[in-house]
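Trying the structure run again after the queue cleared.
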Amino acid sequence: MKMMNHNNMNRLELTKVLSDDEALINKKLPRELLLRVFSYLDVVSLCRCAQVSRDWHVLALDGSNWQRIDLFTFQKDIEGRVVENISRRCGGFLKQLSLRSCQSINDGALVTFAEMCNNIEDLNLDLCKNITDKTCMALSKHCPRLVWLDLESCPQITDISLKALSDGCNHLECINVSWCDNITENGVTALAKGCPKLRSFLGKGLKALTDPAIITLAQHCKGLDHVNLHGCSAIGDRSIVALAENCPKLRYLCVSNCVHLTDTTLMALSQHCIYLETLEVASCSLFTDAGFQGLARTCHMLQKIDLEDCVLITDVTLNYLAQGCPCLEKLSLSHCELITDEGIRHLGGSACSTEHLAVLELDNCPLITDASLDHLLSCHNLQRIELYDCQLITRAGIKRLRNHLPSIKVHAYFAPQTPPPSEGRSRQRYCRCCVIL
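Done. Tokens:
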């Protein structure tokens, strides 16, 4: 009890010191230095400091301390008036704002924001489903320094937004319009012509996107290094050939579920994109070993490759990758049903596996056996392996792997054994389904 009283007194004394406007720290340190200290605090800490004293309230809410704000870290959704208050407080100081998942935000708040915070450079509006083209038109009119804009899953955004951004935000380098279903080739074409500094284009799920739009993007934005076209099912080889020929700095490319692509795409990448580090081509079911032979011959910096559901590739592809991609860290071969232990042998004995390979996904590779796991025993950096629906893998094989790599995470599934039939002629009281339930 005496100790608790002592602690309470200490808290009261500390509170008194901090709440005293004449506290020593306020006297000894100049305002500029105090502001510098406050500039390292996050939003929550600034709000707490604002409640300490009158002086600290002024210091904490000074616009210079509110240059980078991510509201998602402590509040999942906010009202528009909060954005308006922040806009008035921060003004031209604010450079980075994340309103990710703030679904209550509408155009009114963001128009006020654009007018007040015209030095904004980085704006995240992911999942702000109530905003429309009015927001982007305001950004175009008032925010010429905008560099990074995330509009993912904003369903009311249309080509009008991209046309507006191309007119007023010519310094734009990164844009995300994934799952904005109303975006078509007209919007992307306008964006490409008005924003030649684009380095990153994320357009997942834009089913209306066609080859002419991607070709225009490639021709006008030659500095592109990050492109995600996952699920853009209308595009073909012409798009990727144009990207490869015009954008030699390309480091990340995702064309998963672009089902019309052929080995022509892989050959173009092999000829022009030697700096490629990540390639995601899941469900590109027309790719063959020949295409990956060309890719592995020149793209030696590849670190992550997703080949899930590339159903035509065989052990030959793994041999090429093992020889030509010494930096490989993550490889997905799930649902590549022609892969056998021989392919994993090539992979396990390669320089990439012994030095770098950290993740290997082999879900539903029916020809893989425990021998494959034995081929991976020398992969000292292997952190995770996926083995769901690999029917020939046994617990004994996994145990041997874990004995050599004790920190590895193995994700596998073994169906429960069928119980033996009941002996004798007595009829079971319940059927098997009822027993399970």
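Confidence is low (pLDDT under 50) at residues 424-437. Worth checking whether this holds up in the mutant runs.
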